[in-house]
Amino acid sequence: MDVLKRMQTLTLFQGIPAEKLKALAQRTFYRIYKAGEMFIGETDPAHAFYVVITGQIKLYKSSPEGREQTLTLLGPGDPFGMCTAFAIESFPANAMALEESGILIIPGPVMAAIAMKEPRLLVNIIHILSDRLRESMTLIESLSLKEIPQRLASFLLDALKREGRAGMNQLELTVTQRELAKILGATPEALSRGLRKMNNAGLLAVDGRSIRILDREALGELAEGE
Count of domains in the chain? Predict the structure, then answer.
């Protein structure tokens, strides 16, 4: 893979002078991880910046009892590890490939040196961090204040909005229902019961990973807790 050409297409590096981006690409590594491979642990020493190029990964936390909470799903073009690139030494979450995934790895000192000279890169990073903070606040609100059907309704509506399909009523999940349960902070059994309840109420129809929203107004009211 031509690392420089791929970096030129990423929103993260837009506005960076060609010579600076070329120097960055020369110090960047490309690695492929297998589906199901956990390539970073939440206590592992890490001092790098990562960008997903292909595939899909999840960042998650796990308890000593084996419970998991998915924090976010990342796909092509999504960066992560910004905190370890510039600040703390250990990674704050686990990173696992949900499918075969190609990742760019930029050493933290290299990224920091470029960022010190290129304010545009820092602005790009701030925009990404702002979006992540908003997503984290939404996740905290959902887990602490909403029941499972409300969480699911909010997730579906947000997913349609993220994919630019806010006005449509068909969604293809990129993860299994088991993984979706981890995102929603629920057991697979509780999620299954929630889906059946919403199906019986005429809100949606489920066929594998395909979900068709039948009553968008009612789904929105459920997401708001009405």
Answer: 2
| Model confidence, pTM | 0.78
The answer on 160 and 95 residing in a single domain is no
**92 and 34 in a common domain:** yes
Model confidence at 32, pLDDT cuts 50, 70, 90, reads very high
Angle at Cα 172 formed by Cα 124 and Cα 34, nearest 5°?
65
Cα torsion for 100, 84, 22, 118, to the nearest 10°? 140
Largest CA distance in the chain: 59
The residue with tokens 């229902």 is: 177
Nearest to 198 by CA among 179, 190, 164: 190
Residue 33 pLDDT: 96
The C-alpha R_g of the chain, in whole angstroms, comes to: 19
* Per-residue pLDDT reduced to its tens digit, 143-187: 777 888 888 888 888 888 876 666 678 888 888 889 999 988 888
Q: Which of 90, 122, 141 is the last residue of a domain?
A: 141
- Domain of 75 in residue numbering reads as 3-141
CB 222 within 8 A of CB 153: yes
Written as one string, the DSSP assignment of 97-141 is ESS-EEEEEEEHHHHHHHHHH-HHHHHHHHHHHHHHHHHHHHHHH
Query: What CATH number does residue 214 fall under?
Result: 1.10.10.10
